[in-house]
Structures are given as structure tokens and as C-alpha cells.
Amino acid sequence: MKNDFGIKNQVLKTALEGYDMMGTDIFTPGAQELIYGRNMMLALKDYTDQSAIICGNLKGALIPGFRTHKIIEIDGKKILITSIIDKKLERKAIHGLKVEDPLSSLNQLLKIPHDLAIAVLHFSDKRARHFLRTASGIDIAILGTQRGVLRKNEVINNCMIIKNNNHGKTIGYLDWDFATAKATDNKLLSINKETYSADKKIVELVDQHEAWLRQHYIKIENSKSEKTDPAVATETPYVGNTKCVSCHSEITTSWKKTRHASAYATLQKKCKDFCPDCLPCHSTGSEEHGKKGFSSPSKTPHLFNVQCEECHGPARDHIKNPEGPYKNTINAGICINCHTTNTDPEFSFPEDRKLIAH
Ligand code: HEC
Ligand code: HEC
Ligand code: HEC
Ligand code: HEC
User: Fold this and answer.
1) Mean pLDDT within 17-43
2) Which of 48, 198, 228, 238 would staple 293 via disulfide (CB 3.0–4.6 Å)?
3) What is the fold of 7-191?
């Protein structure tokens, strides 16, 4: 492939193919794409037949095939859609991508006759709100690169805000009434497997994508383990749960009934068992969490799943000398390494702790 950006390439390819299948009208590159520069922007065109690639304030002439906006006509009404990137993000861009002044680019575009103007804003949350206070003429702003979700309706300077986020798990939904120029419904929709599993083509696309990722991580894994001399392989003070069962058999049986014991199987089902993004929380004592346990599937295969030592600490010394001191004060801090506001928004230490008690 002439432009190979590794995993990023594959993610974009799947995303754009998926958007096309869903009938999405536009795709608006943001900071994530900028950092890969002009070649990435050019590669985007290869992945989509339908979605127009829109950016209102990238120096257009540099990128053939990009458009600054799109006009969609519904019931005789002209809907102008564009996307604006924060000038501040230009410093992230490489290979000669230039971001033009957001406000003057927007004002230029708003001169095009329209009945409704929609702008996707690639700004931080705070800066998007600031921009909307200074810019007039946008009817609907779509935020999305920012963290978190929008839980109540928000209007700034006559502009209605909708937000897509939460790691792609939620999407903003809005019904617009042209007669009153107001939104009649504005809510968040959740996207999960149930939402898209009715569509065979999408399911197939997701399966292909996951299979690709798996192959990719296996390749990375293999190249890592070739370089690792077994003689200097990581020394870890984590011994693994098979070493506990002889003395704590009842507790081990009880632990096996919790989902902690099948956290790795969960990743396998998702074809993510080699995925460095997922493994730290679905394994024990991850190096990613500043601990000296799980480092990779090949080096530390005894540390898959959320085992005893994740909560109780490394047990190398304890199994040699069980009567000796071994840490056993467990507080919420241990859990929220993994039960974060993103992965488990409803996590409650007093309640959840009861569910794993032994
Ligand atoms: C050779 C037997 C033996 C093995 C193997 C063993 N333990 Fe223990 N463990 C003990 C004994 C004995 C105690 C102290 C019993 C007590 O105070 O009730 C203990 C206590 C503990 C405690 C409580 C510590 C405290 O201060 O209250 C934890 C937690 C623990 N073990 C975890 C583990 C884990 C995890 C493993 C496996 C990695 C493990 N043990 C392996 C024998 C063992
Ligand atoms: C290393 C990361 C990690 C830590 C630390 C962790 N968990 Fe979990 N926990 C997980 C994962 C991952 C799952 C889901 C596993 C799956 O379904 O594959 C989970 C699932 C659970 C569940 C659902 C269990 C069930 O059987 O239904 C509860 C409850 C829970 N954790 C409580 C806790 C508590 C309480 C703590 C702290 C004492 C804690 N967890 C610490 C990663 C962690
Ligand atoms: C920051 C820690 C963390 C990371 C990183 C993480 N998970 Fe999890 N995962 C959890 C916790 C905690 C739970 C349990 C949440 C609950 O009980 O609601 C969980 C549960 C799950 C579940 C079962 C629950 C469900 O929503 O169906 C799946 C599947 C899952 N994770 C897959 C993944 C995949 C795939 C990745 C990598 C893309 C990943 N996880 C990365 C912490 C994490
Ligand atoms: C998700 C975290 C978590 C995991 C995983 C976990 N434990 Fe515990 N364990 C706890 C908590 C919480 C307590 C209660 C201690 C406290 O309140 O500080 C506890 C208590 C214990 C005790 C003391 C029991 C007592 O009666 O005083 C032992 C022994 C123990 N665990 C062993 C194990 C072993 C062995 C495993 C693996 C098979 C394991 N634990 C897995 C969180 C965990």
C-alpha cells in the first residue's frame, strides 16, 4: 500500500467503509488525522465512495478531493454543513498542513445561501464554547472530539449543541423543525452491538476489522518475543493464581465465579486478546498501571485475568512464608485503576465489593 499508517490506516478504512454503509453524508477529519499529515488526508479518499470529506478551514488547495462544505436539500430547504478546526491544532499537523483562521473561514462559508447551517467543531470543549460565543450564524454545532457526554440541552448564541462521544458509544440525535427554527427533540443515542447487529454487512465489517487487529497484534507480539532473550525476560514478583489454590481453595473457587476470572476470555471473544489497549485492565499487575506483573501475552501468560494478586499485591514472598506479613487493606483506589468513569460509570466501591466478596 502506498500510504501505510499501520493500525491508524486500518481503523480509518473500517470507519469510512462503515460510514458509507450507514449512509453518512460527511466525514470531517480532526486532530487525530492532522497528526498524520497530508499523506493521510490523501489516503482518506481511497476509503470512501459516498461520504464527502469536509473541512472548512484546511488550506483546501493542498488536498485534492476535499470540500469545504456540503449542501444537502431536504423538502426544498438547503442545509449547509461544514467543519472547522481550531487554529491551535495546527501545531499538531505535519507535512505542510495549514489551518486557516476559523472565524473568517466560517464567515466566508456562511455567505453561501442556506436555510440551516451545521458545523462540526474540532476544538476542545472549552474553546468550542468560546468560539460559539464569538461566531454567529451556526444553527447547530456538533462537538465530538471532547471527552464526556452532554446530558442536557445547551444553546450558545442561538446555536444548539449536540455531542457525539464516550468512545464512540453515544451519538447526538436531534429533530429540527424549520417552521419554528427550533429543535423538537435532542437526545443521546447509545450505540452497542445490539444497535448494529441487525445489519449483516456492518457485523461482517466489524468481524473483518477485529480479525485484522488480531493478526496485527500477533505480528507485533512475535517481533517483540524474538528480541527478548529468555535469560533476561522480566523477573516478576507475581506468581499467578494457580499457586494459591492449595491453601485457599474455597476462595479460589469463589473467585472463579466472578467475571474477574474470565476477563481474558472476554477479550478473546472480541479478538482483542493481543491488544495492548485492552490487556492492562483484563490482566494482573500490568506494567501499564506501574506494576511489575503482566507485560505481554508471551512473557507473562500466567497473569491473564484479574487475579488475586491484582488486589492483594505480588505474592512471591507470601507463598514462601505464608505466616509473614502480606498486604490486605483493600480500598476503592485499587479498583478504580480499571473501573474508571469510562469503563464502569456506575461503579460503587461499597456495592461492587459485595459482588466479589470471598
Ligand atoms: C502454603 C500455603 C499458602 C499459599 C500457597 C498461599 N497462601 Fe495466602 N495465606 C496462607 C496462610 C497460612 C495465611 C494466613 C492465614 C490467616 O491468617 O488466616 C494466608 C493469608 C493470606 C491473605 C490474608 C493476609 C492477611 O493479612 O489477612 C491473603 C490476601 C492471601 N493469603 C493471599 C494469597 C494469594 C493471593 C496466594 C497465591 C498467590 C496465596 N495466598 C498463597 C497460606 C498460603
Ligand atoms: C486490573 C483491573 C481491575 C481491577 C483492579 C478491578 N477490576 Fe473489577 N473488573 C475488571 C474487569 C476487566 C471486569 C470485567 C471482566 C469481564 O467481564 O470480562 C471486572 C468486573 C467486576 C465486577 C463484575 C463482577 C461479576 O462477577 O459480575 C465487579 C463487581 C468488580 N469488577 C468489582 C471490583 C472491585 C470491588 C474491585 C476493587 C476491590 C475491582 N473490581 C478491581 C477489572 C478490574
Ligand atoms: C481502564 C481499564 C479497561 C480497559 C483499558 C479496557 N477495559 Fe474492558 N472492562 C473494564 C472493566 C472495569 C469492565 C467491567 C465493567 C462493568 O462491569 O460494567 C470491563 C468490561 C469489559 C467487557 C464486558 C462488559 C461489556 O461491556 O460487554 C468487554 C467486552 C470489554 N471490557 C472489552 C474490552 C476491550 C475490547 C478493551 C480494549 C479495546 C477493553 N475492554 C479495555 C476495564 C477496562
Ligand atoms: C477484585 C479484588 C480481589 C481479588 C481479585 C481477590 N481478592 Fe481476596 N479480598 C478482596 C477484598 C476486598 C477482601 C476483604 C479484605 C478487606 O476488606 O480488606 C479480600 C480478602 C481476602 C482474604 C482474607 C479473607 C479473610 O477471611 O480475612 C484472603 C485470604 C484472600 N482475599 C485471598 C484471595 C485469593 C486467594 C484470591 C484469588 C483466588 C483473591 N483473594 C482475589 C479483594 C480481592
Assistant:
1) 79
2) 238
3) Purple Acid Phosphatase; chain A, domain 2 (3.60.21)
